[in-house]
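Chapter review: from sequence to fold.
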Amino acid sequence: MKLGRIEGKVWATIKDEKLKGVKLYIMQPIDEYEQPLGAPVIAADTIGTREGDIVYWVSGAEGTFVLDAHQIPSEASIVGLVDRLDVADSQ
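The token string follows.
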């Protein structure tokens, strides 16, 4: 799993039938210090996140199996909300 910050929402009036009812968000991957990692991605939301939330997410094959009812066409899916990040000092 990876960390990300929700930056915005994607509005799509026409999308794959399997994505009906699934919210899509613009998510910026981040490291454990909340610094950006690479380009933002579009992620399917399975937990009800909001803009500004820090989340953990999965990608690839794991990103398609996040719903019980069916497989979705998604490269990235949000699977958890981060309440707090505690990073041990490495010095």
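Two observations follow directly from the output. The chain has a mean pLDDT of 85. The CA atoms of residues 57 and 79 lie 5 Å apart.
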